[in-house]
Amino acid sequence: MSHKTVLDLRRMKAGNPPEKIAMVTAYDATMARIVDAAGVDMVLVGDSLGMVIQGHEDTLQVTLDDMIYHGRCVRRGLRRAHLTVDLPFMSYQVSAEQALRSAGRLVQEGGAQSVKLEGGVRSAPAIEAIVRAGIPVVGHIGLTPQSVHATGGWRVQGRGADAAAALREDALAVQEAGAFCVVLEMVPTELATELTALLDIPTIGIGAGPNCDGQVLVCNDLLGFDESFKPRFVKRYATLQDTMIDAVRTYVEEVRAGVFPAEEHCFHDKRAPSRVQRIY
Ligand code: KIV
Q1: Coil, strand, or helix at residue 269?
Q2: Nearest CA-CA partner of 48 in 33, 40, 34, 31
Q3: Omega of the bond prior to 17 within 30 degrees of 0, cis?
Q4: pLDDT (tens digit, 9 = 90+) per residue, 136-194?
Q5: Considering only CA atoms, which of 84, 59, 134, 63 is closest in space to residue 104?
Q6: Could you identify the atom of ligand 1 that is nearest to the CA of residue 59?
Q7: Which phi and psi (to 5°) does residue 147 adopt?
Q8: How far is it, in rounded angstroms, from Cα 42 to Cα 23?
Q9: C-alpha closest to that of 111 among 84, 147, 145
Q10: Averaged over 62-88, what is the pLDDT?
């Protein structure tokens, strides 16, 4: 089965009726296999892996080599979803040439079909250079976690006339630079609705209301891996943290009680003179 392409995804917005795009993150082959089997359209190897996989407080420590490693892992688990891999902090901000080199590595070594980078007007030259080389780009505006020290934290962006106007400019710059879709993160519903109508390319929302052309969530949040992390925009579709703790707790109890492994989990040598007996 072939992977969804940029054309398939653009057609989803242009269709009559339009189809919503479902995107989710994944960081390894097992999760990729699961979300692919569930029918997602796009899988993002997000630099959110810095937080949910590596345990950092933000995404700023993630390197291009980290993204390549996880991209390669995820690609092996996918059959039909489109694979986008994030350009991490400082892999594209220096120059358009640096951005193109980094994007090229994500495709050649990381299995990416497209790359995502943060920023609107300021990132337009990088987007243009990458698109010109034949690599599809996903934009990312609104809250841009790689600028967390400049924006002063994880806040809703685009509130008020000036901030909304700046975000409108960012959205148009990303589209004009050639991105094939754009993530809107933590943007008021009213503004996200307006941007979705304004742009020809699909908008993928996270904390941007129901009227975007698609939605994205971090797989760990959607599945409830961490009960202590629950921002307003996350909907938990499962509480796997509880299920997993219960399962491992039962395993620990069974090991301690000598209940596991049972006979069906054991191997025997039929040529051995006598069977091993349980000793306790
Ligand atoms: O890094 C990431 O996972 C992301 C999504 C939350 C959009 O950028």
Answers
A1: coil
A2: 31
A3: yes
A4: 999 999 999 999 999 888 899 999 999 999 999 999 999 999 999 999 999 999 999 99
A5: 134
A6: 1
A7: -105, 25
A8: 5
A9: 84
A10: 98
Q: For the residues of 112-129, what is the DSSP string, one character each?
A: -SEEE---SGGGHHHHHH
| Both tokens assigned to 109 | 């070594």
What's CA 189's distance to the chain center, in Å? 21
Closest atom of ligand 1 to 44 CA is: 3
What would the DSSP string read from start to end of 116-164? E---SGGGHHHHHHHHHTT--EEEEEES-GGGHHHHTSS-----SHHHH
Task: Supply the residue whose CA is at minimum distance from atom 4 of ligand 1.
Answer: 46
pLDDT single digits (tens) 118-148: 999 999 999 999 999 999 999 999 999 999 9
Interhelix angle 124-132/96-108, rounded to 10 degrees, is 50
Within 6 Å (CB) of ligand 1, which residues are found? Answer: 25, 44, 46-48, 86, 183, 185, 206, 216, 218
User: Shortest CA distance to 152 belongs to which of 161, 160, 143?
Assistant: 143
Identify the pLDDT of residue 148. 93
Distance from C-alpha of 218 to C-alpha of 106, rounded to nearest angstrom: 20
Taking the C-alpha atoms of residue 54 and residue 56, their distance in angstroms, rounded to an integer, is 6
Look at residues 58, 45, 62, 52 and name the one whose alpha carbon lies nearest to residue 145.
58
Q: What domains does the chain contain, in order, with CATH numbers?
A: 6-238 (3.20.20.60)
List, in order, residues 6 or more apart from 274 with CB less than 8 Å away. Answer: none
Q: Is the CA virtual torsion 256, 260, 263, 268 positive or negative? A: negative
Q: How far is the CA of 86 from the centre of ligand 1 (A)?
A: 8
- Predicted local distance difference test score (pLDDT) of residue 230: 86
pLDDT at residue number 277: 63
